[in-house]
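Case 241 in the screening queue. Each case pairs one protein sequence with one candidate compound; here the compound is magnesium ion. For every case the pipeline is the same: read the inputs, emit a complex structure as tokens, and attach any notable structural observations.

Predict complex for case 241.
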Amino acid sequence: MSFKDAIDSTRLPQHIAIIMDGNGRWAKKRGKQRVFGHMNGVKSVRMVTETCARLGVSHLTLYAFSTENWGRPKAEVSALMELLVRSLRKETKELDKNDIRLNAIGNLNALPKRVHNALLDAIDLTKNNQRMTLTLALSYSSRWEITQAIQKIVADVQNNQLDQTQIEESTIDQYLTTKNIPDPELMIRTSGECRISNFLLWQMAYTELYFCDKFWPEFDKEDLYQAIVSYQRRDRRFGKL
Ligand code: IPE
Ligand code: IPE
Ligand code: MG
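Case 241 output:
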């Protein structure tokens, strides 16, 4: 039996966020370079995107490159950026055909120009699509995001655009890079690591966390279905009874 049969399609998470982890270890286990793992991770990206869209999930957010990942060896960072440009150029048509809108969050100005431009082109090409929004978190970290939100809030208070006595939680939502995206109901992390690594800290206050031991390149459809089933079996209390 497939876990797919156990999914209640009327209670799908609207927004799934994924920390795609374990590419390097997957490659190493096979005696290959870490980059080989990143290349094979693209297949899983394609799979989760197609599967979520087909199921009827409206938002999928993928943590692809963190602020802290800039601290990796230069060769790995360059290889990841190259892979990103290539994948964007290759996959955008397919996204568009599937009515998927591409979005990106993070400090995009820190990306090499080639990457930034490829990203903006893909976002522009898919901007009217409706079926699902695929958000890539690139050069993203939650503390960076919260810091830039505070800077903008302070500036707006000083410009009299914002009344400081009116600042509420929903105001803060509006200053985050995720402002038009609902909070994720389900967060999946692969590779067996049980941590958040600076991802969507504000937005995940009540997200259900799901940790999967498989490395990202081997994460398959059944693993995704299983995560959704696990989410649907949980009792979400939000502090109440
Ligand atoms: C996730 O895989 C991809 C990125 C962080 C860019 P890793 O590169 O972190 O692989 P591991 O966790 O070292 O195996
Ligand atoms: C988190 O993975 C970031 C991404 C998947 C893009 P890392 O591999 O960078 O996180 P740590 O170092 O294990 O916390
Ligand atoms: Mg990792």
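Case 241 observations:
- The chain has one domain: 12-141+185-230.
- Helices lie at 23-29, 34-55, 74-97, 113-125, 142-158, 169-175, 221-232.
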